[in-house]
Amino acid sequence: MKNYLIFLVFILGSLSTHAEGLKLTCEPQNSTCINCQNYQTLFPIEEFSNEPDSLNIEADNSEILNKTYYLSGDARVKSEDSILSADEINVNSVTGITLATGNVKFQDFDYLVTSNELEAKKVGDKLTATAINANYQDYSSGAGGANGYTEIISKTEASIILTNATYSLCPVNKNDWLIDAEEIELNFDTNRGVASNATVIFYGVPIFYAPKYSFVLEGRGSGFLAPDFNRYKESGKTKNEFGFRVPYYFNIAPDQDLLIALNSMSSRGITYEGKYRKLIAPKKSPNHKDSIWTAEVKYLQKDKITNFKRWLLNFSEEIDLSNKIHLSASYFRVSDASYFEEITRADTSDSRLESHLRITYNDIINNGLKLEVLTENEQVVNSGTPTYTKAFEASIFKVYSQRKTKQRLELDYIATKFANDKPGSETGMRSYGNIEISREINPWSNKSSIPVITPRASVSLTNYSLKNNPNKKRTILGAGLDIDFTIFNDGKLFGKEVKNRISPIISYDYRQKKAQADIPIFDTLDKYDSIITFKKLKSGERYTGFDRISNANDITLSLESSYRDKDMLKDSKKKDLLNMRIAQSYYGDKVVVSDNAQTNYETRKSYSDIAASIDLAIGKYIINTDIQYNPKTSKIAKKEYSFSYEASPRKLITLSLKDEGTSKKVVRKISGAYSLTDSVHLFGGISKTTSTGIINNETIGLAYESCCWAFRVAHFKDANSIGGHNYSTGMELVLNGLGSTSSPLSGKIESNIKGYVSHLNYD
């Protein structure tokens, strides 16, 4: 009995509304929608008359009696806005009434109707039509248009009344589901449909009844969304638990909406959810994010296991105050660190929740000026540990550029106050200023056959005002130059006209050597802890942040060969068809500034490992390879590979491998989707640390998708904080036009399967 009740509620929630999620309508001309190939109309669509305020009349036999036209034998009346054909048609020019009988076919701009008898009347510009025992179709909406059978259909400009009728949004030749009702009113002014004494029939089986049922005709509308059902296990338990979530969507206005939901977990209780969104205004600058305001709340009054209240609060805002000023704000908190693992059962790999307030003034394009003020905070979740946050930060960046001489002067100043919730952590203020002068070079614009020398020089000053230690000051001078031997060649690659750029570059970097062991580390990381890539080696800086600035007396040799489509030379966002890179640095000083606590310097070889990469982008195929090669051992120290093929969101595969060395972990990932038929596809993915044998996460699922309904089921396996795994299984069912989806299931599938989309209106 319990299983039947769950199924009934599941279907009930699906019969509701369109919203922001799954949209099943597909246009017949859209070749990418593989589920709508059998689109048909009730009868072939014809063109209307080109002569305004007149009727084109065709018939085998015709006569006129008392201002009434009697037409018979393949009779047809065509106007500028409708077409009527039948065995017999009588047109009264006085009353404006047209009566058609026998094999009636009626067409206007939106609907097709076939019946045994139809009466139409035109008063002024308004046409009303009533048909008996009719089939109808809203062909203006393509394969997703409404269709069905009705004993009586009455159509006006503003509405349609259907008596003893069926209603479906499946293709006219394939009604997998339909509504059977005593009366259905389709009101175009209110964009609502209302069915009286309605029964939903799915593959011939009645599954739901409602005395009155309202639904949206087109676009978004308020109502229940498709619920989602999942099965899971609590950590360390063998018993299966069940979760069921029923969402309701409020379409408040075109620029704002509200989603509420009840999420019942058999082991925990009922969580109340709400999410409000509002578009504030169109963004005023292409450099800014969309202006939107969102607030999300989840609340569990009493957890059955812990007996505590469990909650989530997530607020974010992005708004352009002007075309140069942008405000970004967020506040993200949960009741406790285990909330995601125990309640939402998602985002379990996150280590912290970040909150911030940022105001940015950006006038780089016109005046080369950018100002920013930031404050942030964090909450540690799952297995994370406290880190430093920027309690307050103010920054200014100014650039002076000369187009003729290509000279560029950059002025940079950042003042940051750091905080840390971990007991005993050092806190304080860091002020950093930097002046750098250089030349601007576009790698694709240099057409000179002689080497281009690009000098640069910099000076930076850092001051630390610490809470528990004496203040620190550090001034570091730097200089360098690049000697660029770039040449260009024209050619063909993979059938395309390409420009080949070969760039041998010799770079020299000098930076003062300063002992820095007594300076605390707030936000600085060693980029060489992970794989050393071509870009990292070319940057000439080992550390991120400003708490450590490495000394340098280095020469870097690099070679890059890239092939780019000639039509894409000016588009920096487009990938090269083929790019090959290799670089190595030679050190004049065998000791380098260390980021180990209380250590000034650490020794290194007189040369770096070799960084090499090959990137290939051919149509649907993308291959990326990064290798860190140790010349001393003649072995590959670290490597990263990735391969992806994406023919469509239903036919794709992604493979990746990240090997951080023999003493580090090796992570392999594979994910993809494969279509078994036009309507059925499999999807799955796995991330595994092969050096330890631990599965980080695993996803496998099956989906059926057609033009008028969809079903998806997925099973998840996620590593938890105690060394085991959490298991869950979810499913969702959506009926076209009567249901949409906002379920966590779709989002979790998309996050685990790179490139996969869970809605059907893909391009």
Q: Could you describe the 3D structure shown?
A:
With 763 residues, the chain is mostly beta strands. Among the domains are: 43-219, Lipopolysaccharide (LPS) transport protein A like domain (lipopolysaccharide transport protein A fold), CATH 2.60.450; 443-455 and 469-621 and 628-635, no CATH class. 5% of the residues lie in helices and 56% in strands. The protein has a 26-stranded antiparallel barrel. Strands 1, 2, 3, 4, 5, 6, 7, 8, 9, 10, 11 and 12 form a twelve-stranded antiparallel β-sheet that branches. β23 (389-401) and β24 (407-419) form a beta hairpin. The two termini are 42 Å apart. The relative contact order is 0.10. Residues 1-34 have low confidence and may be disordered.
